[in-house]
Amino acid sequence: LDLDTAKEELEEFIPHVREMSDSSIRKMAGRDLTRFKNFKKQGIAIKFGRFSQKENDQIRKNVKEFLSLTGIENAEKLLFTSRYPEEKETINRLKAEFLFCGKIAEGIPRPWRLIYYRARKIFDPNNYKGRYTKEEKEKLKKYYAIHGNDWKKISEMMSRSNLSVAMKYSEIKSINYGPWTKEETQKLMHAVEDVIRKRSKLEAEKSSSEKSRRNLSIDREKLYQKLPWTEIETKVGTRYWRQCKQKWNSILTSKMTKGQELYKGTKGLQAKINLIKRLYEMKVEDANEVNWEELSNAIGDVPRAYVQAKFYKLKVSCVPLWQRKTF
Question: Is the pLDDT of residue 223 over 90?
Fold first, then answer.
């Protein structure tokens, strides 16, 4: 397919495809378009967001079958081939010969790239090593000072995954862990506004005047869906991205509920009952299949992150051995 046709056909499955780079679109057209069309014929929608337990199990099954098919020794060699330079050529040949891309994604209605990254996270032995010690944190700061954002190199030096070292550094470089100051809150609100303006392609309307700030009108979902938190973290400057996300959801909840306490007293008990009842009525098998947006009015006019947090707290505090139970 030529690039324009690829964009047009992929847009049916990936609404934001035109925001992607040309090279990513070409790869997706080659790896995913036929798969997406086959899923459509089966009436299966393409998914994003958190992977369900069923999808994780399918990835494990696909990897196990591919190892059996090719004779590659283990999942680490398959998914982290660069760690085994002496076997790299042989492994890559086997991956090409037995169509690794198609086999790893079999039965999972998601873009191949997301499936591959998820598989790497599941099977990376460096990804489950517990909390960082004080010594490790100091090493991480030292390595970052030398190598900057070369997380691959730093991860090899620390025997931790790329994602783990990147996220941990983002956390430990944060200056403030106490209550938010008024100045920090204002920085956060302006940072979110800036990224929303950028995303909405409203640069031409940017102005420092208060009138312009008041007149910015957008769909409410854009206030809390898929915001670039690492970019917002940089703009705030004193807080870790997860702190920014939590604080922003707190601000939104307060504004959307006009400051009312929806989750306390008799009203709070009723909200919990409503939430449990609605979750039960959805008949889903995994928490990742829940439409949290649809559920938000079980508690009140709140962001979906607020509902998810309340359900998590309810589960942890009221269900013994909840980790061992199905949804």
Answer: no
pLDDT at 233 over 80: yes
The Cα 98–Cα 108 span in angstroms is 18
List of residues 6+ apart from 317 with CB closer than 8 A: none
Name the pLDDT band for 116 (thresholds 50, 70, 90).
very high
Residue 150, SS3 per DSSP: coil
Going by C-alpha positions, the residue among 2, 101, 107 that lies closest to residue 51 is: 107
Q: What's the pLDDT score for residue 293?
A: 78
Query: What ranges do the domains of the chain cover?
Result: 3-123, 134-173, 182-207+216-257, 265-324
Question: Domain 134-173 class?
Answer: mainly alpha
Angstrom distance (rounded) from CA 228 to CA 219: 17
Residue environment code for 205-242, b if the CB has 16+ CB neighbours within 10 A, otherwise e = eeeeeeeeeeeeeeeeeebbeebebeebbeebebbbbe
Model pLDDT, residue 203:
41
Measured from the Cβ of residue 246, the count of other Cβ atoms closer than 10 Å reads 14
Q: For residues 67 and 75, is the Cβ–Cβ distance under 8 A?
A: yes
